[in-house]
Amino acid sequence: MSEASAQGAWAGGASGQAGPDPRRWLILGVIAVAQLMIVLDLTVMNLALPSAQHALGFSDVDRQWVVTAYALSFGSLLLFCGRLADLIGRKVMFLTGLVGFAVASAIGGASVNFEMLVTARACQGVFAAMLAPAALSLLTTTFTNPKERGKAFGVYGAIAGAGAAVGLLLGGVLTSYLSWRWCLYINLFFAGIAITGGALWLHKQQKTTGGKLDIPGVLLVSSGVFCIVYGFSNAATHGWSTPSTYGFLAVGVVLLVAFAVWQGRASHPLLPPRVVLDRNRGAAYLAILIVGAGLFGIFLFLTYYMQVSLAYSPVISGLAFLPMVACVAVAANVANIVLLPRIGPKPIVIVAFLLLTGGQIWLTRIGVRGDYVADILGPLMITGTGMGLLFSTAINTGTYGVDPQDAGVASASVNTGQQLGGSIGTSLLNTIAASATTAYIASHLASLHGRPSAAILHQVQAAAFVHGYTTVFWWCTGLFVAGAVICGTLMRSGPLQGMGPGAAPAPAAVTEESSAV
After folding, report:
1. Number of Cβ within a 10 Å radius of residue 383
2. 3-class DSSP assignment, residue 270
3. CA distance 359 to 371
């Protein structure tokens, strides 16, 4: 099927084709639970790391690997697993990913040493790479009616945008009142619900007939993304001048360039150029990458500010993000249900980036003795609105109009953009914050005469931390402005083809069997 005919299929189908799946809203619930579990695990362990470190006795250097192991396996395998879902069936990949993620989480929660915990986290990343693109492609093929698709992607976008903040809250609550181990055990609850619902309600999905796995493409992109994620993660802890940082980054860039060249020549490309060369989809993937990099600054450094500078507990810090979560949920649904069918993605993405910019500028005004209502609440609500608009719109646009056999790899491209953005943001913003903090301390201590008292040192250090945070917020401001310009320029004006007012319902995705398997 050509892309033009695929886009027509989204807009409306011939008479006589099967109607929408009557269990599609139950399927949405299953997908939502699975996606929430994946997004939570990106942040839920952050607040649990100090407790896990104390319990298992590993070093500060080793602590980073609890996060990095997950990111490496998750990011590097996404495109491979997305294509695999297209070839062997999305239901199989979805359920396999859920079961594997649950088992890895149970092993991680029962860890008796550092090696066991890191291995479990790496396995979590492998199964998350199977689960994430399968879940999004199931959503894409289940909801083909433009109006219903908007509602479904509004829910999904709200979870993608707000899940990280919910993870901070949940991590704080579980660590404070139960144990750090429950930050992993909680996945058994989510996975159990999703496995049960998936087994009962999901149809066996149509496979790509005649498709073959692009082995050279898999090796190139998986190795390339692994090197990029590792290089940026290494920079966050060892600096940019170490060979293990710039060497891996250089190799990663070379491998990804080679992958791009190969995709134009391969007979069965892993990531068909038609998927990413569409201006709207390409800009959507770029928008996800940019916002993924910038949001790291919002979550991490605002959490640091509340806990270090304002002395909030982990639970209170998590609760402080709830207004943002509410704004994400509302904005995501308004974007997909009301705005996207009428005006298209371009103005929504531009406004979203400008809202994120405004929130960051407001956050640059924080001080050592800040106030939640005056200094944090407003920026969080503005940021949440921008996140909801952007995530839901970009995810919907990034999977819209692709050939059915490309649904898995298009979904994987969305997740890859977010994962790469998070890895880039982790290293760049950490480095920027550390450099700004060190420079502030050095310049202010140099201006003092004699040996400063402990009280003066404490004041300078407290002010230096806040200076580091505000410097990061200014950099995020520039990043979001660039996102508005670049993505706004790339995207086409007007509604997506077949999604404008009056568009006819599309046929439901074809399944191999008429009953659940």
Report:
1. 29
2. coil
3. 16
